[in-house]
Amino acid sequence: MKVKKYTANSLPEAMKLVRADLGSGAVILNTREVQAGGFLGFFTKKNIEIFAGLDQDIDYYPKKSSIVNHEPVQNKSENEELTYEIRQLKQMVHSMTIQKKDNEPIPEFAEKWRSFLERQELEQNISEEIINQLTSKYLSLDPDESEVYDWNKWMIDWFSARMKKSEFGGFHYEAKFLNLIGPTGVGKTTTIAKIGAKAVLKDRKRVAFITTDTYRIAAIEQLKTYAEILNIPCEVAYTADDFKKAKEKFKDYDLVLVDSAGRNFLNRFYIEELQRIVQFDKDMKNYLVLSLTSKYKDMETIYSQFKSLPVHKVIFTKKDETSTIGAMLNLAINHSVPISYITNGQNVPDDMFEADAEELVQMLLKEKLKHD
Ligand SMILES: Nc1nc2c(ncn2[C@@H]2O[C@H](COP(=O)(O)OP(=O)(O)OP(=O)(O)O)[C@@H](O)[C@H]2O)c(=O)[nH]1
Ligand SMILES: [Mg+2]
């Protein structure tokens, strides 16, 4: 590959020079900022240098072959060396993207994405990363190409790769006890009814309820009403001993859903109180319920307070009451939070679906359509 240097005032201008000279098949090897001109250190200005070339090994741009070095290969060892060098270069090219410099103006296209992602309350470290990479990709394309480029797919791929460490998907009877915990009024009891109804009506499982929420009569009545509708038993546990007995009573059931009182879990005291009644063991999965209408910083604090319990997965509720889902993506990207269900309404059992990475990004893209 013959490498050439192009210098201009800005990255877009330098890219234009590269494109004009090498065509759309140009391979960018490096970009850097250099100081130019000046007198005794004064009046210098910043220029952008791009090193680019055409890869002779790939013949998708035969028109430009004149600048490619066609020297015949002399012998086998030289041939091997050349092959090795080409492989090295290819690896280098693959691992490089054009880096947007901090002082470069961002194209309007990326600016629109930035304002949308900020409104979605995505953490700044995440949106910055997206905008930098999006801008680089945008600048590496011809205007005609970028117009038809599948940016939605780019977003799906970006988020999917960054959320790789998070686990997605609902409860599939991997334990007998499923315990729903979380702040007040987020929808724990309603979601228990939704999961219970699905297990009874769709999966034909033997299901029971236990509630440790004994602080309000209405709370007990609420769960008992759902139990009656589903024709399943419901036990109330006032003490740790009650809880033990209820567990024993339901030992032959397929699934026992445990409801608990909503508390201000920003305060660690309530987590300890919960631990006193419920015996957390191997046969129990703990799902933390968080409402998408809450603030991200509070969700982050509550999640980290509960982590030691441990929290196996998170359920996000009330998607229907907000158009902002950044908090959920922040937790998945910055904290690898595993996401099980998303609920989107008060109807039992319909308003709930299992989360998957692509679905989450599709939700974001739908909001983007409304934003444009
Ligand atoms: N819009 C909407 N409302 C929901 C959703 N899930 C639950 N709710 C409503 O939120 C309110 C509180 O729901 P609960 O299930 O009682 O919440 P909880 O977490 O058990 O509340 P406490 O036990 O008091 O802490 C009820 O009016 C539910 O109908 C949802 O996905 N969307
Ligand atoms: Mg409740």
Short description:
This protein has 372 residues and is an alpha/beta fold. It is 44% helix and 17% strand. The site of guanosine-5'-triphosphate (GTP) has 20 residues, from α7.
Secondary-structure map with pairings?
Blueprint: E1 3-8, H1 11-22, E2 27-36, E3 45-53, H2 76-95, H3 108-119, H4 124-139, H5 143-148, H6 151-162, E4 177-181, H7 188-202, E5 207-211, H8 217-230, E6 234-236, H9 240-249, E7 255-259, H10 268-277, E8 284-291, H11 296-306, E9 313-317, H12 326-335, E10 339-343, E11 352-354, H13 357-371
Parallel strand pairs: 4-7, 4-8, 5-6, 5-7, 8-9, 9-10
Antiparallel strand pairs: 1-3, 2-3, 10-11
What is the H/E string? Answer: EHEEHHHHHEHEHEHEHEHEHEEH
CATH topology group of the largest domain: Rossmann fold
Strand order of the largest sheet: 6-5-7-4-8-9-10-11
In the CATH classification, which architecture of the largest domain applies? 3-Layer(aba) Sandwich
Arithmetic mean pLDDT? 85
Q: Which sheet architecture does the biggest sheet show?
A: 8 strands, mixed
Describe the structure.
The chain is an alpha/beta fold and 372 residues long. It has three domains: 3-95, no CATH class; 108-162, no CATH class; 177-355, Rossmann fold, CATH 3.40.50. It has 13 helices and eleven strands. Strands 6-5-7-4-8-9-10-11 form an eight-stranded mixed beta sheet, sandwiched between helices. A three-stranded antiparallel beta sheet has the order 1-3-2, covered by helices on one side. Helix 3 (108-119) packs antiparallel against helix 4 (124-139). Residues 57-74 and 94-100 have low confidence and may be disordered. The structure holds guanosine-5'-triphosphate and magnesium ion.
